[in-house]
Amino acid sequence: MSGFINALPGAIGQGLIWGIMAIGVYITFRVLDFADLTVDGTLATGGATLVMTMMAGCNVYVALLLAFLAGCLAGLVTGVLNTVLGIPPILAGILTQLALYSINLRILGKANQPLSAYNYHLIASMTKLSSALIVVAIFVVAIIGILYWFFGTEIGHAIRATGTNMNMARANGININVSKIIALVLSNGLVALSGALLSQYQGYADINMGRGAIVIGLAAVIIGEVIFGKIFKNFALKLLSVAIGGIIYYIVMQFVISLGLNTDDLKLLTAAVVAIFLGIPYLRARYAETHVKAVKEVK
Fold this sequence. Notes:
Layout: H1 2-32, H2 39-55, H3 60-83, H4 89-108, E1 112-114, H5 129-150, H6 154-164, H7 166-171, H8 176-202, E2 204-206, H9 213-228, H10 235-258, H11 266-298
Antiparallel strand pairs: 1-2
Helix pairs in contact: 1-5, 1-8, 1-9, 1-10, 2-3, 2-4, 2-8, 3-4, 3-8, 5-10, 6-8, 9-10, 9-11
């Protein structure tokens, strides 16, 4: 148990970083109602871009901006494939994700590239955990604030309307293709930003660092909704619940690992956690329906 407690700050830090990625997933999955699988590639794109630009002499903040823009470009490609070429959302995301594997390999030059906190000025390194937690928490709060403002604008409302009812949005003069593209650009930009912070945190970028990211992102979204769905009604609080969901996910993972789980089984555990939390709302609704029926029959 002491090992779990000692590892808790690290799990919280990693959960916060993945929480940013989960917020990006929330934009497409919940707000836009678009199943975007690009994120598995975009996360690695952000990490690779940051590492290589910093190795080339860029300031860490410039590198973060470039990583964000690289993710935005990936989201733009997925959006164009879907809106211009008419490719279904899942296939458009898979195609971009597949292309990004080669692109990320080109950026890195090899499968794995280290980034030492002792040689470069990093703002979120595991070697300085306390300051990393503060910096990442600031990023989370700032992102939630910016998104809360953005989705209150005319463009933001257009995106939300597109996700709620595409036909009605089109009938009201909203260009749904533009709305889709903007949401995908923003979502993948945030995912890449998360990847850039993650590469700093763990001290390297890897070609496979985004594998399974969509599942972790969905886990954070679902955990946040199940636990805080009835409490957090405000849009900003919903985004906060997603970030907290990322923290809870990694705390649960760390706890299970401390019990002696083989790390090779983590993907299996992740799938099980997501399945459980996805099933909870359905089972809860079925229970409520059955309970109402039983009460009516008694009466």
